[in-house]
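JOB MANIFEST
job_type = single_chain_structure
chain_count = 1
residues = 257
[input]
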Amino acid sequence: MRIASWNVNSIRARIENVTSWLRLAQPDVLLLQEIKCQTDDFPRFEFEALGYHCAVSGQKSYNGVALLSRLPPTETLTALPGAEPEPLQARYLEATIGDFRIATAYIPNGNPLGTDKYEYKKAWLKRLKAHCQTLLAQEIPFIIGGDFNVIPESRDVYDPQGWANDALFAPPTLALWHELLNLGLTEAFRALNPTASEAYTFWDYQAGSWPRNQGLRIDHFLLSPEAADRLTACTIDRTPRGQEKASDHTPILLSCD
């Protein structure tokens, strides 16, 4: 199975970019984040015409996630379990596809530090950990892909010192990230590319970040042990970031037997 994940930064603004890429890449599953539209406004027809079933958890103008699959998704979960403060934010969608449990996740940015936004980010990551523990106890092969808004290591950011006090790279964020990994989860790209550097998935629109390759690696796949045993490849496709009307993120791709 080939699974892709992509923060598209508004699906309606990027529909031509995404459908063109799908025709070329042909993943079995595409996980989308930050679709920025309500569930009923998601452009299902365009994706169904390409042979994909659509599961969507949308929100007007902000957030929103979707899961596109060649096989019909079943047992869909449209929110991360646990108490969610008001107003509700559409950040998590999970479904069974084939013999995998697959989720698309858009973790809060959390900036600035010392605010309610950062407390929300930390609470969200703790809820994700609790849910992963539930799935692990059931011995379900699962894959969570998405925009985690976490820079795992210094080599995953162009300027580590400049990002030291950012919510994506702050010590409490990294501690929570390592708590996820310490459950026994595998971060797919780093597992298969242990020496890769400047392997970024996000480049800001400002200050010439893309042409200067001033990027971050914040889009990831986390796999349960049962899924990691079947992991064969994980790559980053930089091509879409260089196109017109590009998202500030680019797709990451995972292959499992």
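[summary]
The radius of gyration is 17 Å.
The chain has a mean pLDDT of 97.
exit_status = 0
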